[in-house]
Fold this protein.
Amino acid sequence: MTENTGLELLITVVLGAEDDGRAREACLPLLQRVGGRIVESGDCSDEEPGCWSVTISRPAASTHTGPAALARAVRTFLRELGSLYSGQRVACEPPAAWAVIDDPELVGELVPGGERLLLEAWAAGPVLQDGAGADDVAVDTFADDPDEPAPPAPEPGIDDVDEHGRPRARLQLLVDVVTERRAGAEWPARALAARLSRQPTITGCSEHPPVVRVALDLGPSPGEPAEIVLGAVTALGGDGWSRLRVRDSSAMSRWSAAPTPRSGIAAVELNAAAPDPAQRQPAG
């Protein structure tokens, strides 16, 4: 049995399947084995025909709550899977520690048709801190304050329009990650976005060596753009955020690590913009 320590595990399986239902069904044996719940599934056929990804979330089995427990939580889970999995390399690219099993034979033992498995561990609390770096061990990149409760994430299912039929402002997130691989940028960016939205969507990815920039749409948010960005800054925490910039019907704030880390998140930008007034729907 796992205890809810504030450390969360995300187990993402990439597999071959005919459709979303078959992909989820194939992951049921793994779900029954490790516990948790399926929180996301997606079509990866743009990378390979018939390719799907399924993500399972569960609390990490750990007696520790500090950031140093991130890599330990990943290693503990790998040992749960068995000796063939426990020797996998565990890396830390703040705000997540992770391991990748890119062995269809091993992954296929867990999920029929499985090709790759990504295991991430991340913690509750603020996730950004100046000077954040990454090595092959977990590093102290979280500014936890046990006396300060984390602000709630936006509620799931927020409508695109408010009660008066007016389009809501949308929150956008840009994450710059120092990494050699696009996947190495998408995973920590997605983990960061999960602190702010239940259904973040990657809208773009561009390479500017040694940085890969990931753009995400975090969906509609209640309130004015400045209020939305300030709430997101508070949720992510950390020092070094720029002064809020408000222009017309938009707001923006940016965070950057100093110095730039050898790997991991180097910069984050939050933007919220109200729709063009010409597109607003008249109140009924």
